[in-house]
Amino acid sequence: MQPLAERLRTLAIEHLGWIPAGFEFHANEIWNARGPWTGKEPPALLAAFEGLVGVLDELSISVVHASIDKARLHARHNGAYDDNAYLLALQFLLEKLDRWRTAQALRIIIADEAKEYQLRAVDMVRDMQSWASGAVPGRQLVSVIDSMHFVNSKDSPGVQLADAVAFILHRRTLPTQGHPDADAAVARMAAMIGEHTPTWRAPWP
């Protein structure tokens, strides 16, 4: 984590010229030229975003992901599971992570603050560790050794990088980014993320 934190500080200085008080990388702010990125031209914004995602390659960081298609979930179950979309995605993510290199890893889960779901998520992780009971029946976790920890994203470089990765995973599902240069940048970043993704679950259902 220390090399990641140091690299993000270096990137902020490279692309902003300084580190604003309370600064953190927010994918949405970079993409839309908001916050400290206000006034930056699109090429500079794309360069900053690609530099951020490029940390995956620089530090050999792996990506594991899972997602829920909320519209299809609502349609399939007549809205009965709408409130469980977050927990379903979390469960599928943890199960994928737990299957990957389990014998070699002991894991702690750190997540961005999600006050609406935090207590339920902590309870679910504990239940999955004890008897494989998640939002739906699933896999007992053997490599996750502690409770789930929620942090403010400004205090976690890992959460900030995950935010950027998730943003690009979403953008690549869109038919266009609105400009050929943005299309090309998203394609490059998505390809890099793919190269560092050993396991994932396609959107469900």
Structure description:
The two termini are 34 Å apart. The protein is of the alpha/beta class. 23% of the residues are buried. It has 2 domains: 2-60 and 159-204, no CATH class; 64-154, no CATH class. It has helices at residues 2-16, 27-31, 42-53, 55-58, 70-77, 85-99, 118-131, 157-171, 180-195; strands spanning 64-68, 107-112, 144-151, 199-204. The radius of gyration is 18 Å and the shape is globular. The chain is built from 9 helices and 4 strands, in the order ααααβααβαβααβ. The mean pLDDT is 96. Helix 7 links the parallel strand 2 (107-112) and strand 3 (144-151). Helix 1 (2-16) packs antiparallel against helix 3 (42-53) and helix 3 runs parallel beside helix 9. The protein has a two-stranded parallel ribbon. Strands 2-3 form a two-stranded parallel sheet.
- The rounded Rg comes to 18 Å
Approximate helicity band:
40-55%
Query: Structural class given helices, strands, pairing?
Result: alpha/beta
Give the low-pLDDT segments. Answer: none
Tally of helical runs: 9
> H/E series, N to C?
HHHHEHHEHEHHE
In brief, what are we looking at here?
The protein is α/β, with parallel strands linked by helices.
Topology, pairings included?
Blueprint: H1 2-16, H2 27-31, H3 42-53, H4 55-58, E1 64-68, H5 70-77, H6 85-99, E2 107-112, H7 118-131, E3 144-151, H8 157-171, H9 180-195, E4 199-204
Helix pairs in contact: 1-3, 3-9, 8-9
